[in-house]
Amino acid sequence: MTYQEVLENAKECMGTYCKACPVCNGKACRNQIPGPGAKGVGDTAIRNYEKWQDIRVNMDTICENRPIDASLELFGQTFAYPFFAGPVGAVNMHYSEKYDDISYNQELVSACAEAGIAAFTGDGVNPLVMEGATAAIKESKGMGVPTIKPWNLETIQEKLALAAESGSFAVAMDVDAAGLPFLKNMTPPAGSKTVEELAEVVHMAGVPFIVKGVMTVGGALKAKEAGAAAIVVSNHGGRVLDQCPATAEVLEEIADAVGDSMKILVDGGIRSGTDIFKALALGADGVIIARPFVTAIYGGGKEGAAAYIEKLGSELKDTMQMCGAHTLKDITRDMVRYC
């Protein structure tokens, strides 16, 4: 199955919100919730995509001609590529009823594991979402990252217990989900976390803990203080706050501040292997891509996800070859430039 076939199939079953666009740039669905858009006008999601396009790569083929190794070592695991599938929740509401969260994660987690990468799984109000996600990760021998919403501590403890049972190599919390409407006015309260509260969760996790939703140097330093092993530079795909900077605009300064002491991932508008190369050049250790994986699963199940992973991997390797980087460690900032 080709990726073009995946897109065509997805258009037939994607529902009324997502248009399965050839490039997921946030424009067609910008302010649709339910749907993959934003709770505001959606300008941040669009900016995420466009700012990666404002960065260009510097071609240099006057170098040794040898094979490209795009593998990444992270938390004791070796991955074929430095990118991961991102967490997505309520797929039956935001996309269509072809899948629910449980069946979606079953397809996604196993497809990613078989392709040599890993999937971050989503969370939801329904406890079955996390139960299904962690069961899928367990079936794939721990090759997945359960991503827990910033619930109250008791609920977090329950979900961490499921994560531990799955054998996952890491656990994440998308703290930027504090801006999602369904977390408002919950009892017990859910939402933003203090450094002390995060530190308690990090301690309970028992595996490397990833704080997703960091957009400032100050936020990165607070995640570091809490003991996080990694952060994800992320604005929740531009879904929770209009007028927010793009992740490409803040990645470099955050990497300069904490890149020597914790792992840095980034998401938001990254749509090609060349975009992945740009992110690595700006200081990221790896990237996360979410919405296009939904299109891939809806358009072809595990085979669709495999086609998308192969597309991204091939683009990344080609960009590395054309810029003179034979391993991820060879990718440096002078290999990119701003328009």
Concise synopsis of the structure shown:
Helices cover 41% and strands 13% of the residues. The protein has 339 residues and is an alpha/beta fold.
Task: Report what the structure shows.
With 339 residues, the chain is an alpha/beta fold. The protein has one domain (3-57, 67-323): Alpha-Beta Barrel (TIM Barrel). The chain contains eleven helices and twelve strands. The chain has helices at residues 3-11, 43-53, 91-94, 101-115, 127-139, 153-166, 195-205, 217-225, 247-258, 273-281, 291-323, and strands at 55-57, 72-74, 77-79, 83-85, 119-121, 144-148, 171-174, 209-214, 230-233, 263-266, 286-289, 336-338. α10 (273-281) links the parallel β10 (263-266) and β11 (286-289). The model has no long low-confidence stretch (mean pLDDT 95). It catalyses: (S)-lactate + O2 = pyruvate + H2O2. Belongs to the FMN-dependent alpha-hydroxy acid dehydrogenase family. Its cofactor is FMN. This is L-lactate oxidase.
Features:
alpha/beta; 12 strands; 41% helix; single chain; two-stranded antiparallel sheet; TIM Barrel
Task: Describe the protein's topology.
Layout: H1 3-11, H2 43-53, E1 55-57, E2 72-74, E3 77-79, E4 83-85, H3 91-94, H4 101-115, E5 119-121, H5 127-139, E6 144-148, H6 153-166, E7 171-174, H7 195-205, E8 209-214, H8 217-225, E9 230-233, H9 247-258, E10 263-266, H10 273-281, E11 286-289, H11 291-323, E12 336-338
Parallel strand pairs: 4-11, 5-6, 6-7, 7-8, 8-9, 9-10, 10-11
Antiparallel strand pairs: 1-12, 2-3
Query: Which stretches are poorly predicted, pLDDT < 50 over at least 5 residues?
Result: none
Task: Report the total helices.
Answer: 11
Overall outline: globular
> How many separate domains make up the residues?
1
Profile the largest sheet. 8 strands, parallel
CATH topology type: TIM Barrel
Strand composition percent: 5-15%
Give the helix level as a range of percent: 40-55%
Radius of gyration: 18 Å
Please report the distance between the alpha carbons of the first and last residues.
Answer: 36 Å
**SSE arrangement, N to C:** HHEEEEHHEHEHEHEHEHEHEHE
The number of distinct β-strands equals: 12
Mean of pLDDT:
95
What is the CATH first-level class name? Alpha Beta
Structural class: alpha/beta
